[in-house]
Design a protein that fits this description.
This protein has one domain. 88% of the residues lie in helices and 0% in strands. Helix 1 packs antiparallel against helix 2. It is built from two helices and no strands. It is elongated and about 45 Å long.
Length: 60
């Protein structure tokens, strides 16, 4: 799988995690649940960004 494909997969994962985060906030989940969802979302975004950077560097 190419870096650009990995980036797309991780970007999609971050979008789904963000939906779960919003739901956790709206339903009044615990601070721990909200924090975990936020951390997972940020991690997925960071991984997607790293793969996008790798894809850009490979195309140079």
């Amino acid at each position: 799988m190419k870096a650009s494909e990995h980036a797309r997969v991780w970007r999609g994962a971050s979008n789904r995690l963000e939906v779960h985060l919003d739901k956790a906030i709206k339903t009044g989940r615990s601070k721990t649940a909200i924090g975990s969802a936020a951390a997972a979302t940020q991690l997925a975004l960071a991984i997607a960004d790293a793969y996008e950077e790798e894809a850009e560097n490979a195309s140079d």
